[in-house]
Predict the structure.
Amino acid sequence: MNVKNHKEALKEDIFSIISGAAAELDMDSYVIGGFVRDYLLNRDIPKDIDIVAIGSGIELARKVSEKLQKKPKVQVFKNFGTAMLRWKDLEVEFVGARKESYRSDSRKPVVENGTLKDDQDRRDFTINALAFSLQKENFGDLLDPFDGVGDLKQKLIRTPLDPDITYSDDPLRMLRAIRFASQLHFKIFPESLEAISRNKDRIKIISKERVVDELNKILGSDKPSTGLSLLFRTGLLHIILPELTRLQGIEEKEGQKHKDNFWHTLEVVDNISEHTDDLWLRWAALLHDIGKAPTKRFDKKVGWTFHGHEFVGSKMVYKLFKRLRMPLNEKMKFVQKMVLMSSRPIVLAQDIVTDSAVRRLVFDAGDHVDDLMTLCEADITTKNPKKFRKYHHNFKIVRQKIVEVEERDHIRNFQPPVSGEDIMKTFNLSPSREIGIIKDAIKEAILEGDIPNEYEAARDFMLKKGKELGLEPGKG
Ligand code: CTP
């Protein structure tokens, strides 16, 4: 067999230290998994390194730590028979080679000691089963029993064993297959794809956190629709994000059709990914239309409507985040806000763009107005070139006006120039309804552009408004 050597991949001295430690313990050891894969793909080398020992991974980790300066702490995960240490900016994980079998109700394997080949057999994909030897006599040799290198060249995701076994052993791998396809621009081997469809229901035993981790990686890829459409085709998406799959389909009544909001959404996600790496803005793009399924109606006069879908959708975001155990913090609120406001700029862009409409948009969106514009630009998926140009042109105007209005009126993070306290003092009022009325009227006058966002003007307006309400300065 023509074994290729990759000594140059193992220049960091951690590798020769591991090699020495393993020799002292009379064990063989190998680098395996993502490090080897990404090295061969010329990708950024990952900061986590997986070492497999033919023997106890925990013992090897302890020996390595003894040999390293400052003897880093070894973190032991007894249940999994693994150990981890940090060295420089690397996270090195050690595991003993194993022959595994899994119970049907859990991802947790029943483990027996095994050879390197046993260990490679139980890994997820041929491209992740590649290993570099750390033995002195063949340091850097590539061990590739399933032609993982061939699959790297052909850009193929393939399982070492029968895919039904590999996916059933650990159903998370179904999501990993799709995630790698999306991240690396690889194809999933047809039998493997069929096995994912067959085993899709097993995804239910995987923790929500792990599912979301993979979803986030799919959303983080250059063209997330690759992964999302695979999730859809295999039926996994129907289980994980039914809110989205309910958007799929075109209905026709009395000759009127609406667009397929699922495939539209995927286009929006791809569009936005060309302009931002922000995960939460990408989530907002993914969820911006979810309110359309429950609000869809047909009206003989106006055709298909989705009244209030933005509001309904923003409420659904909370439920979805909660179900998937995603953070219910300001990130979730940001996604909700984007969904809630997702139609505002489009409505603007269809008409003449007035200053007051832009001022209101900036007031409501606050610091997120640029993100909102990015979302709405991505939302333009019309295939009519005339409309496409018109909307983009109008959005350009909206963006310019946002800058102008911002410079002039400082509407973002709006603080009223006359406070409730000012109003109380001026009219000698105790807390009352009138204060709210005057405050709102001032805000409205500023947003409408009737008065500038300045103290003097706002004070004059307050006096006028007070008079209308029968109030006089200095009197109650
Ligand atoms: N692995 C596996 N099945 C899993 C997870 C991991 O067989 N469900 C194996 C693969 O050999 C993988 C290695 O463990 O390469 C390390 O896993 P991990 O660090 O999660 O993934 P990487 O392949 O390193 O890739 P990434 O860091 O992009 O997740």
User: Anything to note?
Assistant: The mean pLDDT is 93.
